[in-house]
Amino acid sequence: MIYLDNAATSYPKPEKVYDEMLRCMKEYCANPGRGGHDLSIKSGRAVMEAREAIAEFFNIKDPMRLVFTKNATEALNIAIKGVLKKGDHVITTSMEHNSVIRPLKTLERDMGIELTIVSGNEFGEVDVEEFRNNIKSNTRMIVCTLSSNVNGIIMPIKDIGELTREKGIIFLVDASQGVGALEVDVEYMKIDLMAFPGHKALLGPQGTGGLYVANGIEIDSILQGGTGSSSENMFQPEILPDALESGTLNTPGIVGLSQGIGFINSFGLLNIKNFKNLLINQIYDGLSNINGVIIYSKKEPSKNSGIIAFNFKEIDSTEVSYVLDKGYGIASRAGLHCAPLAHQTMGTIKGGIVRLSVGCFNTQDEINMLLNALQEISDSMKYVTNIN
Amino acid sequence: MIYLDNAATSYPKPEKVYDEMLRCMKEYCANPGRGGHDLSIKSGRAVMEAREAIAEFFNIKDPMRLVFTKNATEALNIAIKGVLKKGDHVITTSMEHNSVIRPLKTLERDMGIELTIVSGNEFGEVDVEEFRNNIKSNTRMIVCTLSSNVNGIIMPIKDIGELTREKGIIFLVDASQGVGALEVDVEYMKIDLMAFPGHKALLGPQGTGGLYVANGIEIDSILQGGTGSSSENMFQPEILPDALESGTLNTPGIVGLSQGIGFINSFGLLNIKNFKNLLINQIYDGLSNINGVIIYSKKEPSKNSGIIAFNFKEIDSTEVSYVLDKGYGIASRAGLHCAPLAHQTMGTIKGGIVRLSVGCFNTQDEINMLLNALQEISDSMKYVTNIN
């Protein structure tokens, strides 16, 4: 099996992720922050250490402003619904995932927020000026993906951060595609809210994710419950992270995520990024030499977080993906990838695209095998076309 | 370490829970329902098999009406906020956890629902007639815990289910304390909505839980996002489980939970229940013979899901718990246990209680050691009293 679906979830994980999750579960996994006994304190400490490691990774000054969630979707829902009020105007892009678009469309319908969706060029690349041109007096938030989960295009986050800081607008970044693959510094990029999953390029397990909430951002909880703090209070406590972390946390998952980030740190984010760029270049150049291929991703490292989106002119994306899987043991993903507006922007709403997403455990040999497979598919297509 | 904090989270888990989570993560953990390739299909199948196994365990006829959540708190928030509308009246009990009380108090404050909180006798036991007497024309929902997380008292769920069915009121059960320890049959008990954690007596890992939604119950999502279905739709799909399962699921966690339930099935729920009752009896009888002890739990198996709440008359609960941990290596939990109203009912709001909660891996020898420790604490207390 050649796994090229790392944008859905990275696979495999570093061995230490498995090892430490197992050690956590077997040796000390009591309920963190819910008791004074030795095991509970050990679990609480493990969660705190993970919080600190992740905060440092993103240059978050105060680890207590990093909230653990079950996935990026929960984090995005908290950020959107915990901040926006009736009458607020929000600007977002056509390249957003449904985890951004659906909560926003729901608030537009049910609560009366105003929504502007900007779309950039045919790669979905949005210039900061497009955001600036759409700012109104009631613009409260700009929501932008770090990079597209469909074609990997990287958004000008730092420029948008400067614009929002200048205008006093809250900046929410959906970092689902890109964290662990690109450098993310919340201070440098002037990010106010950032949602991320643990199980993609951060190399943690599924069931993990987080939300960063900058100092000064007021945010309501969407889940209330036990926090292990202020137990006597029948309302949610207001201090972070407790306010946004109701119920028992996924301790082994968080420990695993911490190990995933530890792996990135020990390998070097830049080294991983360069290696992925190498693989992306290899795919791009190879695909460019195959007849009938259309590529929807950019090749430049500064414009691509590790995804090649493509189609064969005459074949449905799901068919190509199916043949790659069944005929060659290559895992890709076809279809719309939960981002319908992105496909309108790219002109691929009808048949979707085939997505190849690389991870740090892929090899150049695997990419050679991929390219051979795609060449064969192209050849057989020509053959079919000839006899018809 | 003698672990008697199983009501917070069960520890350890059965070996198969660890083994299968590890196998899932190492061998096939792609993104379930998010691709057509072999690994994604394997992950999707593992989630589906877990869904079916858990549904069967609770006698849920349609597994698709069982929704996976990150914990019971998320499930309770969905059930409460996804159903209740302005003007609805809700009846609940004083024995509820903050995961029920806080969302309800928040809706009372912010959305204008009406709330009645009934409290029963000094054990928090509520008779079904108390619910009946508080029903009004706008009563939309009754929320009741299966058993108290503070003292283990079991509520008359079947009777309440019959009342709510008769009156056309929605019945939400917080099964956090009790699932895996008591028989739960959603059909027999006429339960409409049931929230449960995976990591307590169901013996699964942290980061898992679920919500059962009976046929005919209309429920809105509180999180919207990618579901891997209806990708072209900018609103949340309405079919279950997708409507309430946004974002990537915790596949290894769900696989682990399935193994936890498999362990209970192979051992026999009734056998586990009887064994826990044996331990509870042993603690109860032993404690009854120790000077200065007040017990807040009932002894009868039909009234206790596996918890003994107690205090030494003169000592703060946190102090007893601390001495048990540091002096004897026994993990208990002191304080309010995120259920302040329960302590008002029991008369323990000032100092809380010491909670001992048994699991299926505790032994009678461990309970003997616990009782010896408590006897020594009592003796030293007497000594301190004498010299003063």
Model description:
2 copies of one chain form a homodimer. Chain A has 388 residues and is an alpha/beta fold. The first copy, chain A, folds into 2 domains: 18-266, Type I PLP-dependent aspartate aminotransferase-like (Major domain) (Aspartate Aminotransferase, domain 2), CATH 3.40.640; 268-387, Aspartate Aminotransferase, domain 1 (Alpha-Beta Complex). Helices cover 39% and strands 16% of the residues of chain A. Chain A has 11 helices and 14 strands. In chain A, strands 2-9-8-6-5-3-4 form a 7-stranded mixed beta sheet, with helices on both faces. Chain A has a 4-stranded antiparallel beta sheet with strand order 10-11-14-13, with helices on one face. In chain A, helix 4 (98-110) links the parallel strand 3 (89-93) and strand 4 (114-118). In chain A, helix 1 (15-27) packs antiparallel against helix 7, helix 2 runs parallel beside helix 7 and helix 9 (317-328) packs across helix 11 (364-387). The radius of gyration of chain A is 22 Å and the shape is globular. Chains A and B meet through helix 1, helix 2, helix 3, helix 4 and helix 7 of A and helix 1, helix 2, helix 3, helix 4 and helix 7 of B.
